[in-house]
Amino acid sequence: MTGRTFLILTRTFPSGYCARMKTLIRRVALACWLAGSVSSDAQTATASSAEAADFVTRAEHELTVHSVLAGRAEWINSTYLTEDTDAIAAEFGARGTELSVRLAKGAAKFDNTQGLSFDVRRKLVFLKQGLVLPAPDRPGAATELNLIATGLQSAYGKGKGTLNGQPINGSDIEAAMGTERDPDKLKEMWTSWHNNVGGPMREDYTRLVTIANEGATELGYRDVGALWRSGYDMPADEFAREMDRLWFQVKPLYDQLHCYVRAKLNQHYGEAVQPANGPIRADLLGNMWAQEWGNIYDLVAPAGVGDVGYDLTELLVSKNYDPIQMVRAGEGFYTSLGMPPLPQTFWERSQFVKPRDREVVCHASAWDIDNRDDLRIKMCIKVNADDFITIHHELGHNYYQRAYNQQPFLYLSGAHDGFHEAIGDFIALSTTPEYLVQIGLLDSSRVPSADKDIGLLLRQAMDKVAFLPFGLLMDKWRWSVFDGSIQPEAYETGWNDLRLRYQGIVPPGERPANAFDPGAKYHIPGNTPYARYFLARILQFQFFKAAADQAGWTGPLHRCSFYGNKAIGERLNKMLAMGASRPWPEALEAFTGSRQMDGSAMIAYFQPLMTWLKEQNRGRDLGW
């Protein structure tokens, strides 16, 4: 994810994933050009065009100055959580919100101005649509909104659950959920985390929704959800339909995976813990939010093909990797594509491990403090496979940020926010066994043979495919909260209904109606729009297939690695360097040759697994 969480023209991205992408929600508005003789009206339009261009220039200057100071304040707050740093971050957040609202309303004055250049018109649209949480004009609203938002994020960072009755912090409880197999202890961790972290946020979150909706209405949007959806080069309602279209492309694969995993959990735990039919108990899936299931691969691995021949965590430990070496390995993939090494300040200023003397936000994120080369990551790295992959993902943000750092401020972003998330994951798909051999982690004699492919694909699908419905429902819940179709008294039931409908999961016990389980997931209190992560899952496979085609790969798609292919790196960097300067279909076409997002590449990647799952699930009840 990318790195800071102030509420200006910035998308916040805090983990297991990001942080400070200037990822503006946006919709392209093409310039209108007038032909004919210069009349007095045309002269007025020309003057207005000049005023608009001047307004944009001044806006970008103000935003640049503010973003650097606010980024530093947010970095200090995220890496040193105290009441004082909370207050400083909230102050800069309030200033940023007031600035962005002022600029958004200033930009709206040029809505009907004729003769604007493409860039001026595009930047004006970005200024209007770049707010994550818009504050209304009334005095004190921006300050209140930012105090609430900062408090919610801080509460999450300080949150603790329990294991065996003892307090356990966020990063440790997340890790324990992946290794513990006692269903009673899993239930304790799941329930305590959701009760302790999410529950107290409910009242503040309700107030936040009210204030932000008021601000969105002043900007001409129905609600905050409509504002968020309006920025994908298509109308807001059309974007919602596009999300559904992509979901239905990949849903059959998820349904087969769900059916298979449910059967294996039933075999392991028995009918009393996990019934053979119906939804899956959420705490049994190896992840606090049941968003990725790879941690329970050992429970579902198929006999004969489930052992892929190596365990990445064990390889890292056996080779005495420490967190810095893990990050060096991630950097090495990007430099093998011809990209420059990270600056020395990256190694001096990043947070790689959790400090022993203070509370920090461990949620992994990537930062670009000065909009040029002050790149950083913020993680609490543990030597395991998950963090090794996360590092590749986070560095994707940093290399994207560096690629477009010559663009004007309002173009310092991905083609759309899903692009930013997809780049690192697309690189991580290439961390195949062959890649691990190339970097010396895996002996060539231990490269899995073709008969292990099902195991390899199943292990990936447990994360990549399992995530899809969660990535979809996070914002579906918030869109419904913002538009009022889910009222505050139904926050919890609305959340659980969506989890059941899309993921096919249920809590490990009855949840009271006044609970607030959404708050137990960082991106809700962190106010990070989540559609980007769903889109990233789709796009990473689309990017990967395009790279395989460019490399002339003829083997199974999932075995392709383009580590060391500088031609692919050059073409990729050209797309990255565009930033947000052109509509995303143009950026997509520049690398893949297609102007439409498409889930078929994911289906092609997992096709051998899909065929195998159908065979395994014969005679079982699909769905829940």
Explain what the structure shows.
By secondary structure, the chain is mainly alpha-helical. The chain has helices spanning 40-79, 83-108, 118-129, 141-158, 170-179, 183-198, 202-218, 224-229, 236-269, 297-300, 312-318, 323-336, 344-349, 385-403, 417-429, 433-438, 453-464, 467-483, 491-503, 531-550, 566-577, 584-592, 600-605, 607-616; strands spanning 160-163, 166-169, 280-281, 365-368, 375-378, 505-506. The chain is built from 24 helices and 6 strands. Helix 4 (141-158) runs antiparallel to helix 7 and helix 15 packs across helix 20 (531-550). The relative contact order is 0.14.
Shape: globular
Number of helices: 24
Mean pLDDT: 90
E-strand count = 6
What's the Cα radius of gyration?
Answer: 24 Å
Q: Record the strand order, biggest sheet.
A: 1-2
The secondary structure category is mainly alpha
Report the uncertain regions: 3-47
The biggest sheet, with number of strands, parallel, antiparallel or mixed sense and barrel status, is: 2 strands, antiparallel
